[in-house]
């Protein structure tokens, strides 16, 4: 089994989810600064080595409830939302400052469920986060608790972390929490409970092992972590659960400390392409010239210059067919412009996009990450 255990050093784009109980001392309701600084040391070490790091951080409610002096115990939804509005300011600030010590820039991104589920909003969120990574900033992501209401909220950052990891085609999701992994029996009730080091696949047995362990501050018990594992691994993202309480929790994983790895068979790009190629209904077609067909087959993006005609009614982010000069399907992809704008860009050089449309759109009609070529 150990032969299959991945190493932290194998991964290039990593989402680290930090639970509230790690960041905030529950008894005092204050930030655990020494711990945060040590985690950020680990993050900075990886970022300097060229890896891309994204953080999904809880803690807004935990920090805000203290400032607002809300009573201990469960909060009503509106109280959590008010607490999040206050606490998110402090949360963003502590991350920003901790990263700045290493010369890194933190960027706050607040998402709601809809931003990761609805296609156009998903594409917007994805391109913003991709731009931040390109600019070497570290996105600090949380749910936009203040506006997310019961029916449309995640409510836990384990699943949000998994959706962010799949949305960004990350190769690893790290869940840092108050447990060091999955046990074959509830560890607080059973002294013989053993940590499961590797889960090759989330089976019914694994789901049974996940008790409802949780603490006052973190809503996410093992159950939501297993849900996160299902989302992540189905989309080609590996996941690891490790204890976060100690200092330098990422370094501990790298050094082989206790944790549970959830493996994926798929690779994230392949999984994403499968989704584009298989599950989306094309809303139109883009006809391209022979030069564009050749470029697409060499792995390039589709530029407006290679487009000869567009067909159908599509909006930005919709799936479209790409057809060659003879009308044969060359591939499928998500188009970066709606029908009207795409029509105005037919045959144009990408440099002219701003002049033609009056805004600076993407240089590609269909970006290669959003493209599946037939027979690939
Ligand atoms: N978004 C919530 C917060 O920042 C936390 C949700 C969770 O801990 O899973 O307070």
In words, what does this structure look like?
There is one protein chain. The chain has 2 domains: 8-268, Acetylglutamate kinase-like (Carbamate kinase, 3-Layer(aba) Sandwich), CATH 3.40.1160; 280-373, PUA domain (Archaeosine Trna-guanine Transglycosylase, Chain: A, domain 4, Roll). Helix content is 38%, strand content 19%. The protein has 376 residues and is of the alpha/beta class. The radius of gyration is 22 Å and the shape is globular. The chain is built from 14 helices and 15 strands. α3 (60-67) crosses α4. An 8-stranded mixed sheet has the order 5-6-4-1-7-9-10-8, with helices on both faces. The chain has a 5-stranded mixed sheet with strand order 12-11-13-14-15, with helices on both faces. The model is unreliable at 213-220 (pLDDT under 50). Glutamic acid binds at residues 19-20, 58-62, 84, 142-143, 145, 156-157, 218-220. Glutamic acid binds next to α3 and β6.
Major sheet details: 8 strands, mixed
Distance from N terminus to C terminus (CA atoms, Å) equals 32 Å
Number of strands: 15
The low-pLDDT segments are 213-220
CATH topology of the largest domain: Carbamate kinase
CATH secondary-structure class of the largest domain: Alpha Beta
In the CATH classification, which architecture of the largest domain applies? 3-Layer(aba) Sandwich
Rg, nearest Å: 22 Å
Tell me, briefly, the overall form: globular
Strand residues, percent: 15-25%
Number of helices: 14
Q: H/E order of the elements?
A: EHEEHEHHEHHEHEEHHEHEHEHEEEHHE
Share of residues in helices? 25-40%
- What topology, given as strand order, has the largest sheet? 5-6-4-1-7-9-10-8
The domain tally reads: 2
């Amino acid at each position: 089994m150990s032969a299959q255990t991945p190493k932290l050093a194998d991964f290039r784009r990593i989402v680290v989810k930090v639970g509230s109980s790690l960041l905030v001392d529950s008894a005092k309701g204050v930030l655990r600064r020494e711990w945060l600084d040590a985690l950020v040391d680990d993050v900075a070490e990886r970022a300097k080595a060229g890896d891309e790091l994204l953080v999904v951080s809880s803690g807004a409610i935990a920090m805000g409830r203290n400032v607002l002096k809300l009573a201990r115990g469960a909060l009503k939804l509106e109280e959590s939302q008010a607490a999040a509005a206050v606490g998110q300011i402090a949360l963003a600030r502590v991350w920003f400052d901790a990263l700045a010590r290493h010369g890194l820039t933190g960027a706050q991104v607040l998402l709601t469920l809809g931003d990761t589920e609805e296609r156009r909003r998903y594409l917007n969120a994805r391109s913003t986060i991709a731009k931040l990574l390109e600019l070497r900033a570290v996105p600090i992501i949380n749910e936009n608790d203040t506006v997310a209401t019961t029916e449309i909220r995640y409510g836990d950052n384990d699943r949000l972390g998994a959706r962010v990891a799949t949305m960004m085609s990350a190769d690893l999701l790290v869940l840092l929490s108050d447990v060091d992994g999955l046990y074959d029996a509830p560890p607080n009730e059973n002294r013989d409970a053993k940590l499961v080091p590797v889960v090759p696949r989330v089976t019914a047995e694994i789901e049974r092992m996940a008790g409802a362990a949780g603490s006052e501050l973190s809503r996410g018990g093992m159950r939501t972590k297993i849900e996160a594992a299902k989302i992540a691994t189905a989309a080609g993202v590996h996941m690891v659960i490790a204890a976060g309480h100690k200092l330098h929790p990422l370094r501990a994983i790298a050094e082989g400390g206790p944790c549970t790895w959830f493996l994926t068979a798929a690779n994230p790009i392949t999984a994403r392409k499968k989704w584009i190629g298989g599950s989306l209904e094309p809303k139109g077609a883009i006809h391209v010239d022979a030069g564009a067909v050749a470029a697409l087959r060499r792995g390039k993006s589709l530029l407006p210059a290679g487009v000869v005609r567009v067909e159908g009614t599509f909006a930005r982010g919709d799936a479209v067919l790409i057809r060659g000069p003879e009308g044969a399907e060359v591939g499928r992809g998500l188009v970066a412009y709606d029908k009207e704008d795409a029509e105005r860009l037919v045959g144009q050089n990408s440099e002219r996009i701003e002049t033609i449309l009056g805004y600076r759109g993407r240089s590609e009609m269909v970006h290669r990450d959003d493209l599946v070529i037939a027979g690939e």
